[in-house]
């Protein structure tokens, strides 16, 4: 099985704002377009221009209908959870580049590995035997098997873009971040508390996906802001309660 490197100080990853994601799938299409011609993780297809195309996708967007909630009982001026109207939630999903990824430790050939210098999890396709152990181990469903090549594929955080000095500095970020029309996706070093993404997570109460599993995903999701129900004002939630609210809200979604 494959060993993990020592924890890295630099933790490159994504912050996804669920408040501004509109489910347009531009991130998925942009990722597909870039990686179809890239060298770090080419995305293969079967019969791409035929009647029944299929293939590998590193990014997927799931949409959920979130039921309306009523306000919980409050104590003094603190509301435990404000009433929220029904809404459609768009939930982008890709590799979370965990700090202790199960997909790496179960790999029998060392094909799945985690980079010590920046924490990115990658697949060495020359070593991959297509056993699919990594896909079974990943609780986030972030691994894709290529029927064409017989190997596993996954998000690379566009390593061939972010370190490419031939590109303008503004373009050295993952393709999914570049194409997002609402700027719902952010890229940076989540190991640096002074980075823009870390500050954004702190300000908005960003949450990790299924942290109780112990894989320590690097990517973070920003919860939707309180909505107005008709003409009524949404009850104010104090900061001590707001920190807990996103987790309760996310749990409701993931249990569906």
TL;DR?
The chain is an alpha+beta fold and 256 residues long.
Topology:
Elements: E1 12-17, H1 26-37, E2 45-46, E3 54-55, E4 60-66, E5 74-75, E6 78-79, E7 87-93, H2 102-105, E8 112-114, E9 121-123, H3 133-137, E10 144-146, E11 151-153, H4 159-162, H5 175-179, E12 185-189, H6 196-204, E13 220-222, H7 239-242, H8 245-254
Count of the separate structural domains: 1
Q: Approximately how much beta-strand content do the residues carry?
A: 15-25%
Stretches where pLDDT is under 50 for at least 5 consecutive residues are 231-246
CATH class: Alpha Beta
Instruction: Round the Cα radius of gyration to an integer and report it.
Output: 19 Å
Profile the largest sheet.
3 strands, mixed
Output the helix-strand order.
EHEEEEEEHEEHEEHHEHEHH
What is the count of β-strands? 13
**Share of residues in helices:** 10-25%
CATH architecture: 2-Layer Sandwich
CATH fold-level assignment: Alpha-Beta Plaits
Helix count? 8
Overall pLDDT metric: 84
- The assigned structural class equals alpha+beta
- Reading side by side through the largest sheet, how are the strands ordered? 12-1-13
Shape: globular
What separation lies between the terminal Cα atoms?
A: 33 Å
């Amino acid at each position: 099985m494959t060993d993990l490197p020592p924890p890295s100080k630099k933790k490159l990853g994504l912050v996804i704002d669920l408040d501004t994601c509109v489910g347009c799938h531009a991130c998925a299409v942009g990722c597909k377009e870039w990686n179809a011609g890239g060298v770090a993780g080419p995305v293969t297809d079967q019969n791409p221009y035929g009647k029944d195309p299929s293939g590998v996708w590193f990014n997927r967007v799931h949409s959920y209908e979130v039921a309306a909630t009523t306000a919980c009982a409050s104590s003094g001026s603190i509301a435990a959870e404000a009433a929220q109207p029904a809404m459609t939630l768009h939930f982008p999903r890709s590799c979370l580049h965990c700090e202790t990824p199960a997909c790496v430790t179960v790999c029998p050939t060392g094909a799945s590995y985690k980079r010590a210098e920046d924490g990115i999890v990658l697949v060495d396709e020359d070593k991959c035997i297509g056993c699919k152990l990594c896909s079974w181990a990943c609780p986030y469903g972030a691994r894709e098997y290529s029927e064409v090549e017989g190997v596993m594929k996954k998000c690379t955080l566009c390593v061939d873009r972010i370190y490419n000095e031939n590109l303008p500095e503004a373009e050295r970020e993952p393709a999914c971040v570049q194409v997002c029309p609402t700027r719902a996706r952010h890229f940076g070093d989540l190991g640096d508390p002074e980075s823009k993404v870390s500050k954004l997570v702190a300000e908005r109460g960003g949450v990790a996906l299924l942290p109780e599993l112990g894989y320590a995903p690097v990517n973070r999701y920003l919860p939707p802001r309180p909505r107005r129900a008709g003409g009524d004002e949404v009850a104010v939630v104090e900061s001590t309660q707001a920190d807990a609210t996103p987790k309760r809200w996310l749990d409701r979604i993931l249990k569906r």
